[in-house]
Specification:
mainly alpha; 434 Repressor (Amino-terminal Domain); 48% helix; disordered N terminus
């Protein structure tokens, strides 16, 4: 059974920072502000996604996979783990 993909407002338990997401951004020499602008979200929201405090919406998840050319399963394995 697939793990619940609950999204939206509210605090989430942090699983530590998403090092891959941060590394991909830094590899392009992009700031959080630049990436957030490309995703049409705030810099603080991107920071919370990178720190695994918030999960991205489906729309933001899709934009990130397109931006970095990396599958969602690789960027966000916690969304695709089986119980």
């Amino acid at each position: 059974m697939e793990q619940s993909r609950k999204r939206g407002k509210g605090r989430r338990r942090s699983y530590g920072e998403n090092r891959l997401l941060i590394a991909l951004r830094k590899e392009q020499n992009w700031t959080q502000t630049e990436v957030a602008s490309r995703l049409s979200i705030s810099q603080s929201k991107l920071s919370r996604i990178e720190l695994n405090i918030d999960l991205p919406s489906l729309e933001v998840e899709q934009k990130l996979t397109q931006l970095y050319k990396v599958p969602s399963e690789t960027l966000f394995p916690q969304l695709h783990m089986s119980r």
